Amino acid sequence: MAGWVLSNIVVAVLLGTALGLTLAARRSRMWSDTFRDLWRRRRLAIGVIAFYVVVALLDSVAWVGGVEAGEDTVARYQAQSVLDRLFSDRQERSYSAPLADVEFYDGAPLRHPGTHLLGTDLIGRDVLYLSLKGARVALLIGGLTSLLAIPLALLFGISAGYFGGRIDDFVFFLMSTLASMPGLLLLIALIMVLGKSTLAVCFALAVTGWVGFCRVVRGETFKLRELEYVSAARSLGVSEPSIILRHVLPNLMHLVIITFVLMFSGLVLSEAILSWLGIGVEGSWGQMIDQARDELSRDPIVWWNIAAAGGALFGLILAVNFVGDALRDTLDPRTLRDAE
Amino acid sequence: MSGGGGSPLLRVEGLRSWFPIRRGLLRKTVGHVQAVTNVDLEIPPGSTLALVGESGCGKTTVGRSILRLTPAQSGRVLFDGVDLLSLSRRALIPYRRQLQIVFQDPMASLDPRMRVRDAVAEGMRSFRIGANETERTKRVARLLERVQLDPDQMWRYPHEFSGGQRQRICIARALAVEPRLIICDEAVSALDVSIQAQILNLLGDLQRDLGLAYLFITHDLGVVRYLAQRVAVMYLGQIVEEGSTEEIFESPQHPYTEGLLAAVPSVDPDRRGGMSGVEGDVPSPSDPPSGCHFHTRCPVVFDRCRSEAPPLFRVGASTSRCFRAAPGGG
Predict the structure, then answer these.
(1) CATH number for the domain including A181?
(2) What are the mean pLDDT values of chain A's consecutive 10-residue runs (340 residues total)?
(3) Would you call A339 and B177 a contact, using CB atoms and an 8 Å cutoff?
(4) Non-local CB neighbours of B96 within 8 Å, separated by 6+ positions
(5) Does the beta-carbon distance from A229 to B108 stay under 8 Å?
(6) DSSP annotation of A245
(7) Which one has a higher pLDDT value, A328 or B201?
C-alpha cells in the first residue's frame, strides 16, 4: 500500500477516535469538568496546539494528480498533501531573506518576489512551508512513541504492581537494566540496529522512554491493589482481569493523560537532539536546525532557517507543557483543590 | 439450628496467618509476623460474634483470612461444613456469595470512578443475579431503600456522599448478593457517634429481617454490647477470652479483657474514678513475648506466665487463656 493511502486512513481513524472520545468524555462528569476547566485556564495554549494539529492533518491528507507543478515534474506523479498543494510551485533557486525580492547572495530576481514570509533555504525551498511540514513529523514522533511506550508501561507496570512476586522481580530487573544504560547511547545503538526510519526512531524512543512511567504505574497499582474497594470486588466474586479493567485501569487514567502530555514534549525535543546527531527523522525541525548549523557561519548569516525551526519547536513544546501543567493540576489527586 | 446445640454457620479451627519476613538477595525467610495464631471461632446462623482487640492484634487478618483475601498458612474455615481454605479458586466463587465484608474506611471502600448503581450491582453481575441490567437497576433501587438511602441518588459518584451514607452503600453492595454472613471490619469505627448508632441500628434491623450472621470486628467494646451475642477478645494474634456478651461484660476472666473494659469511657460518674486501661504498647507480633503473650503488660503476672504459654481454660460457658482460670487457680 502506498504511504499516502495509509496516511489518509490514519487521519480518518484519528478523527473518528477523537470524535468517539469526545462523546464518551461528555458523558462522564469528571472528564467533561476537566476539559471545561482546562479550556478556561489554557485557552491560548490549546489554540496553539490545535493550530499545529490542523497543520499536521492538512499535511497528512494526500492524493495524486491535479497539481500545477510548473517545472517540477516529480510533483505530478507523487501524492501531494493539502499543505503541499497550498505551497505548490514556490521553488526558488537558492537562499532568499524573508519577504525579499531578490536572491540573498547574487541578487538575481526571485520567481515569486516578496511572498516568502520566512525566506527560502539553500536549494530554494520555502522555509514557512518546511516549518509547517515539521508539525506533522513532530506530532507523529510524539504520538507514535507515546502509543508504543504508554501501553508497554501500563502492561508491565500493572502486572508488576498487581501480581507482585516473580513478575515484579522481572519487571524491576528490566527497568533497572534499561535505567543503568546511558539513554542517548542506547538510542543511538537501537537506531543503528533498526535502521533510520521514522518508526525505528519512535521505537527507540519508546524503549528508552517507558521506564519512568512504568515505575509510576507500578507504584500506583501497588497502592490501588491494597485499597478496600479492590478487596470488596474480590469478595464479590469479580475475576482478576475484570478487577484490573474495572477498578485499576480507570483509576490510572488520569496518570496516563498527564504522562502522555508531559512525555510528548520531551519526545519531540529528544528527536531534535537525535537529528542534531544525524540520526533523526527526515523533515523534522531538528533536522532543519542541524542543517542550519553551517548557515550560521556564513557571512552575512542566514538566520531565518534556524529561527523558523526553533520557533516552531518552541511554540509547540511551550503550549504542550502549559496544557500538561494545567492538566496535572486538575487531574492529579495530590494537587486537587477539592475532594473528588 | 438455633441455640447452643445447632451446627454453626461458620466455624474457624486453628487458623494461622503468618507473614514471612524476607531479607537479602535470596529472599531468605528470617522470621514471621505472627498475625494470627491458632484462632478458633464459631458463629451460629443469624447471630453475631464480636471480635475485639487493640489495633495490630490480628483481628482484621482473621476476617480477611476467612474470605481468603489474605492467605492463611494452616487451619480450617468451615462454612456450612465446607472448608473454604481447601477449595480451589474456582470452587470458592459460589461461596463468595455467602460471605461478604464491609470495611472500615468508607472513602477507600468505594471506587471513586464508579457510580453507586454500578458499585452495588457489581456483585449481581459476577453472580448473574437479575436477568438484565434494567432488572438489576430495580434491585439496586430496592437495596438502597433497604439501607435508607434515596434510590434517585444511584447515578451519583461516591464523593457526593457523606461517610455514613457511603457505609450504607457498602452495606447495600454486600447485601446485593444475598449473603448469609457479613464480616464488619471496623465498619462503624470511622464514623461519628450519632452516625455509628444509626448504622448499628440498621445492621440490627437487617439481621432481624434477613437472618444475617455477623462477625463484628472492632476495637470498641462499647458498640459490641448491644449487637453481639458472643464476644471473642484477641491479643497479639490469639484469642485470649471467649464467652457470651453478658459474661464478658459482667465477669471478665482474663486480665486483658478487664483492662479493655476499664478503658471504655463511661457516663456513670461512679465508675469514672478507677479507670485503669492496659498500660504500655502491644509487643511486636514478629517477636512475641515468651510464655503468655500478655505477661509484659499484665497487672497480675507471676513467674509461670513468663515461661509457660497458657492454653484456653474453660470457665463455665466461656474460655480464658490465663493461668488464673486454670482448675485449681494456677
Answers:
(1) 1.10.3720.10
(2) 82 93 84 86 92 92 74 71 82 83 81 84 87 92 92 95 92 92 89 88 91 92 92 92 93 88 90 87 88 81 88 94 87 52
(3) no
(4) A235, A236, A237, B67, B127, B177
(5) yes
(6) I
(7) B201
A237 neighbourhood in chain B, CB within 8 Å: 93, 96-97, 123, 126-127, 177
Using the Cβ of B122 and the Cβ atoms of chain A, whether some distance falls under 8 Å is answered with yes
* Closest chain A residue by Cα to residue B177: A236
Give the alpha-carbon dihedral of B204, B209, B215, B217, to 10 degrees.
Answer: -30
B202 vs B168: CA distance, rounded Å: 9
Q: What are phi and psi of B42, to 5 degrees?
A: -145, 130
Quote the number of domains for chain A: 1
Interface check A237 vs B, CB under 8 A: yes
- For residues A106 and A86, give the distance between their C-alpha atoms in angstroms, rounded to a whole number: 28
Backbone angles phi, psi at A154, to 5 degrees: -65, -45
The cell numbers describing B102, all together, are 464491609
Query: CA B261, CA A143: separation in Å to the nearest integer?
Result: 64
Q: Does residue A217 belong to any structural domain of this protein?
A: yes
Backbone angle region of B128, left / alpha / beta, with phi > 0 → left and psi within -120 to 50 → alpha: left
Residue A224 is part of which domain span? 144-300
> What pLDDT sits at residue B271?
54
Cell 499543505, located at residue: A83
In a domain, A181, yes or no: yes
Beta B48-52 vs B213-218: how paired, if at all?
parallel
Report yes or no on A196 lying in a domain: yes
Pairing relationship of beta strands B230-235 and B238-244 according to DSSP bridges: antiparallel
Total-model pTM:
0.82
Q: Which triple of cell numbers denotes residue B6?
A: 445447632
ipTM given for this complex:
0.86
A340 interaction partners in chain B (CB closer than 8 Å):
112, 159
